[in-house]
Amino acid sequence: ETGVTQTPRHLVMGMTNKKSLKCEQHLGHNAMYWYKQSAKKPLELMFVYSLEERVENNSVPSRFSPECPNSSHLFLHLHTLQPEDSALYLCASSQAGTLGYTFGSGTRLTVV
Amino acid sequence: GENVEQHPSTLSVQEGDSAVIKCTYSDSASNYFPWYKQELGKGPQLIIDIRSNVGEKKDQRIAVTLNKTAKHFSLHITETQPEDSAVYFCAVSNTGGFKTIFGAGTRLFVKA
CB–CB of B10/B27 below 8 Å? Predict the structure, then answer.
């Protein structure tokens, strides 16, 4: 374990479903991130939270909705997704000033 | 915005040989250059990083070199072992922001 825990590890959902991805970090970091990893594409930054405030929203469709209730937890709420949203969703955390990320193992999402 | 190119996309070496992965970037304001290793079923893991005021950094069999003038940096792995087989990502960011841009990745195969 890296200190960043993501649940669930795998998720299959229909296009009309609503589901949430959860990320928890036990490292005392003050920034958290959601990245999307698709086959044959670079890692895509989706959202950044610093001290529980969203500081980056990288033109992500509104069917993805992040929530950061405290510095240890980050959620990604999903609704009415499309098959092209199928990917590995990675959560990461960092401490301001150190810049290096600690990633979780990801949630493998399949939209059917 | 920042653009990061990474080469090669696939690299196959014999155990004991060296492996070199190269990245170029476009934004001269970038000043932090980490490398991540991603094994199957796991998230990326930070393995080494370098800041813009340093030209080279070593950690056992891994080294990173940076040429700020030419805007390129490289990862060198010596005496490769089968457990080095993974996908390696370069990344670029700067200490003023939260946005890290990743290269597309290099899949390294080390043949025993």
Answer: no
Q: What does the alpha-carbon distance between residue B14 and residue A46 come to, in Å, rounded to a whole number?
A: 37
Confidence of residue A98 (pLDDT cuts 50, 70, 90): low
Q: What is the dihedral angle through the alpha carbons of A53, A61, B102, A29, rounded to the nearest 10 degrees?
A: 20
Residues of B in contact with A43 (CB under 8 A): 44, 89, 102
Confidence of residue B1 (pLDDT cuts 50, 70, 90): confident
A89's tokens:
């969703």
Which of B32, B43, B105 is nearest residue A103 as measured by Cβ atoms? Answer: B43
- Does the pLDDT value for residue A100 go beyond 90? no
Q: Which 3 state secondary structure label does DSSP give A2? A: coil
Residue A36 has pLDDT above 90, yes or no: yes
